[in-house]
Structure formats: structure tokens, C-alpha cells
Amino acid sequence: MLNITLGQYYPGNSFIHQLDPRTKILATLLLIVAVFLADAAVGYGILCAMVVLIVSVSGIPFMMVLKSVKPLLLIIVMTLMLHVFLGQGEHVLYQWKIFKVTEEGLQMGVKMSMRLILLLMISSILTFTTSPIVLTDGIESLLRPFRVIGVPAHELAMMMTIALRFIPTLMEETDRIIKAQTARGADFSGGNLLSRAKNMLPILVPLFISAFRRADDLAVAMEARCYRGGEGRTRMHELAYRSGDFVAFAFTFAMIGLLAFLRWGPSLF
Amino acid sequence: MSIKLEHVSYTYMPGTPYEKKALKDVSLEIKKGEFVAVIGHTGSGKSTLVQNLNGLLHPTEGIASLDGINLADKTRDAKMARSRIGMVFQYPEHQLFAETVYEDVAFGPRNQGLDYDAVDARVHEAMKFVGLDFETFAGRSPFSLSGGQMRRVAIAGVVALDPDYLILDEPSAGLDPGSRNAVFAEVMALYKKRGIGIVMVTHSMEDAAQFAKRMLVVYQGRILIDGKPGEVFLKEKRRLLEAGMDIPEVYKLADALRAKGMRLPNDITDAKLLLAEVKKRKGLK
Predict the structure, then answer these.
(1) Coil/strand/helix, residue A81
(2) Which residues of B touch A205 (CB under 8 A)?
(3) Do A199 and A247 lie in a common domain?
């Protein structure tokens, strides 16, 4: 149970790890735009090279980043299949009854799946190199300007922080309750859906009770320490851009510029 | 009849950056009828140790067995063996879930596949053991009880399994002195009446000295000391202190009196004995 890596943060001290979370969030968004700018094989080649470069700088095992594609593998394969078998085009490569494989369909399929894979890998680099708490700090800071139109930036961030903070605690609790009930001979596997749901009760009831108790305790503790929202609240770790962040931004914009040029550049001349 | 650990090591989350070796090459035998106290610092590995003893965790290396049956096996025999070792977790009242006390205590015996009458008998017996009156409590919701009563219901839930060995992880944590003494008295009664093996994890040297016949001191994932409490507190004082543990107040007081020049015998293990000796020396009655 405790083996589930939460948010998949991979501790490290690389250039990427040390970047400001805001830089990483914005750069991730920009690079996602860049993925959609890529049009031809050259563009995808450059993007792949970029992902390999960023991953090697971050010091995360490449296979680990590649594995983040796994949850969506089915969707990626489906995308590929749909495009390959149903794509319309002139150059028919292979035909069997109503199914035909065209060159255009094949190209489109590969392109779409490449996009999905790149998107997943780029966004997983963000979560691999940024701890959830720092990430929330970054999100809060980025959302702050939107407070004027009523976005409760601080409250959202506080809720996220608390939720994240309590996931490991509740997992530990779950682990303990499961062990305690197992020691009393509970069996959580087997049976039909109904009996399986019923078997979960000895875990869920104590878990909910403890979650409510913790929530109560936390609320009291926060009030006792005069918490009253984000107004006028200072923080222990102020976010600040450093020289590395400017390098990262420069790199990101260079990537976008390059891909935009590859897409529209030739037609300008 | 014994639980045996042979060269057991346990590692949490092996192969990740969070890898932690909690037990290192521990060999140990606990016989039926023993009362063993396990003491150690927070994070010393004592909880991991006891969970390996009853098959909730399976050793990363080495073998944990009960009467020769490997607790890590997936066979029916291994499952039966595991159910013969009861475990009372820290704050066991946090695992209560049923609508009535009766239902909660009956959960374990029912999982053992006993019929209605046998379950009923077990519940009656277990509740009697922990001092909960059946008529008063059986029909009540466990969540309407006081902390000490909830703890007893939880302990009854494990006692109802009729285990040959009972492992208790800090059974007195967070209880008032009255409930604390009651819980210990019940555990002692269980030990004496049924002759089962008891392993009790505790932070309190006093409890270890008072109840246990054998004491295991866990330090950095290894068994540092294994011996009778009286002997350990007398002979291994220095090693205990080095491991960040303390000795009971009685021993400290006796030591202080000796330092002041009072001639006391070496084997003073409880307050009554000390008082008698002091009275004898001073000619008091």
C-alpha cells in the first residue's frame, strides 16, 4: 500500500529541480503549445531531442519518464489504430474489404500518438521534479492576479496543500486498518461485487471516522494559531526567480520560435 | 510451540529513493507461555519486528515461522498459523467499525468460520475477559463508549480469536491510569489463565520490569539486548542508556541510595522490595 509513490516526485538536486515552480509550470504550458506547433518530421525530431535533453539534465531515469505514458497507452494505441484504419487519403498502401491503410492516415496516426506521448512526458517532467507542496505554492502565486475576478487563489492552494498533506497520512492509516482487520481474519479478495463492497466496510468506516477526527483537529489547531485566510499572510519560502529561471524561459521561447519558424517560416519567403 | 525468526531482514520500499532498512538480520525464538516485552526508541524497528512475528509483514530476507510453518506461505496452513497469532495495534479503538459492540467482537471469530453458537460463546468469553458486562455493552454502539471502554472492545475483538500468541503494541498508550491498570490486569489474567505467549511493545521501562519475564531491546534494526528485565536493568545499564533508553525509577532510586552510602542488595527489582530493604536498614516498621 505504501508503495504507491505519491504525485511521483523524484527527489533530486538538478538544474530542473532547482527551478522556480512558476517557471516550470509556465514552461510546461508553453512547451505543450510547442508540441502543437510541430508539423513535420523535423519538428517532432527536435521535440524528442528536447525531451531527452531535459530528462538527462534532470537526472531522472529515462525509463521512469517513459513509464508515465503507460496509463494512457490504450488511448494512444486507439488513436493510432483509428487514424491508420479509418484515415482518408489518396495513397492506398493496403486494402482488405472496407478497411484500407493510406499513407496519409498512417502519417496522421503517428503524428497524433507522438503528440500524446510528448505531452505526457513533458508534463510528467514537471511532476517528477517538483514536490507537490512546491507545486501548489507555484499555482497559488500564478493564480494571484486572478483574485480581482474572484478566484480564491489562497483558499484553493490551501485546500490542495491540506489534501496533499493528508494523503500519505490517510494511506498510512488505511494500511494500518487493513493490517488490523487482516489480523482479525478479514478477507478482502474474492466474492461478487456486493460482497466485496461489504468486505470493505471494516476499512472504510474506521477510515472515515479518523479522517473526520483529523479534519476537526486540524481546524481547531489552525484557528488556535490565528489562521484567518490568506490576507496579509507571509511565507517562509518566498518564491523568487533566479538566473536559471531566465535560462529556462529563454530555452522555452527559443523552442517555440524554432518550431513556429519550421511551421510557417518557409511560406514567408 | 514457538514463533521463530531466522536471519530476518526487512526493507521498506526496496529499490526506490525512499528505501529504508528497518530490520537487519534478526534471529529470535518466542515460546508459548512466555511474556516478552519489546522496548526501543521510536523508529528502532520494534513495530516492524512484531509485524514480522505475526505474518502481517513478510521478511525481505530470512524466514518467520510458527511451529515450522512459514508465515509467508500462501497455503491454508500458513493462513491458519497466522490466525493463531493475535495482534492488538496501537490505538486499536481506531479499527472499530461495527454497529454494536457484539458485532465488532464477533468479526474475528466469524472470519474464522465458526458457527453461530461458537461465535456467541467466544464473544461472551472475550467481553468477560476485558471486563465489559455483556448485558450493558453488547447492544451499544462502540462509538458511544469512552476511550478506555473502546480500547477494551478492540482488545476483546482480538481475544475472541482465541490466539495462542498475543502481540500488543503499546496497549496503554493514551489511557488514564485507571483504564491503564485495568488493561494490564486483563492482559495478565489472560496470560495466566490461558498460558498463551505474549509479546508487548512498550515505551515504559516500568511496565517491562513489572510484567515481562523476558525483555528485548531493539536498537537500529537489531536486537541489542535479550534477557530478564531485572538482570538487564542491573547489568546492561550502560548499554541501555547508550541506546537512548532509561531504567525504571526504582533502579535509579536504589542507585542513588547506594551512592549515598546505603548498603542495599543488588537484586532490587520493585518498589515494595526497596521499601522493605530501606525499612530494615533504618530499623523502621
Answers:
(1) helix
(2) 97
(3) no
Q: Measured on CA atoms in the order B77, B83, B85, B91, is the torsion positive or negative?
A: positive
A208 in the same domain as A158: yes
- Of B92, B108, B143, which is closest to A185 when you measure between CB atoms? B108
Residue B38 — φ and ψ, nearest 5°?
-110, 120
Range of the domain at A97: 15-130+239-268
Predicted model pTM: 0.72
Chain B touched by A182 (CB under 8 Å): yes
Give yes or no: residues A189 and A152 share one domain.
Answer: yes
- CA B168 to each of CA B36, B47, B171, B206, B208: distance values in angstroms, whole numbers, following the listed order: 10, 10, 6, 16, 13
Q: Are residues A20 and A100 in the same domain?
A: yes
In this structure, the answer to whether residues A70 and A158 fall within a common structural domain is no
Which residues of chain A make contact with B83, given a CB cutoff of 8 A? 185
Our count of domains for chain A comes to 2
Give per-residue pLDDT as tens, B169-214: 988 888 888 888 888 888 898 899 888 999 999 888 888 888 889 9
Q: Indicate if the pLDDT at residue A1 is higher than 50.
A: no
Distance from CA of B276 to the nearest CA of A (A): 44
Per-residue pLDDT for B106 more than 90?
yes
Residue A182: inside a domain, yes or no? yes
Q: Which residues, other chains included, contact A73 with Cβ-Cβ below 8 Å and sequence gap of 6+?
A: none
ipTM over 0.85: no
Give the lowest-confidence range in A180-189, B6-15, B121-130.
Answer: A180-189
Give the model's pLDDT for residue A5.
45
**What contacts 24+ positions apart, CB below 8 Å, involve B231-240?**
B233/B205, B233/B209, B233/B269, B234/B266, B234/B267
Whether residues A91 and A197 fall in one domain:
no
Q: Are residues A56 and A94 in the same domain?
A: yes
Angle at B35 between CA B32 and CA B36, to 5 degrees: 110
User: Shortest Cα distance from A11 to chain B (angstroms)?
Assistant: 8
DSSP structure class, residue A102:
E
Of A4-8, A237-241, B79-83, minimum mean pLDDT range = A4-8
Q: How far is A122 from chain B (nearest CA, A)?
A: 22
Residue A3 lies in a domain: no
Task: Give B 65-104 residues with CB within 8 A of chain A.
Answer: 82-83, 86-87, 89, 92, 94-98
Does B158 contact chain A (CB < 8 Å)? yes
pLDDT exceeds 50 at position B238: yes
- Is residue B21 within 8 Å of B11, Cβ to Cβ? yes
- A54 assigned to some structural domain: yes
CB contact under 8 A, B161 and A180: no
Render pLDDT for B128-151 as a digit per residue (tens, 0 to 9): 988 899 999 999 999 999 888 999
Contact B13 A2 (CB under 8 A): yes
**Domain shared by A32 and A150, yes or no:** no
Q: Is pLDDT at A4 greater than 60 in this prediction?
A: no
Asked if residue A8 belongs to a domain, the reply is: no
Contacts of A188 in chain B (CB under 8 A): none
Write the residue in B16, B17, B54 that is nearest to A183 by C-beta: B54
Q: Does A59 touch chain B (CB under 8 A)?
A: no
Span A184-220, pLDDT tens digits? 888 777 677 888 888 888 999 999 999 999 999 999 9
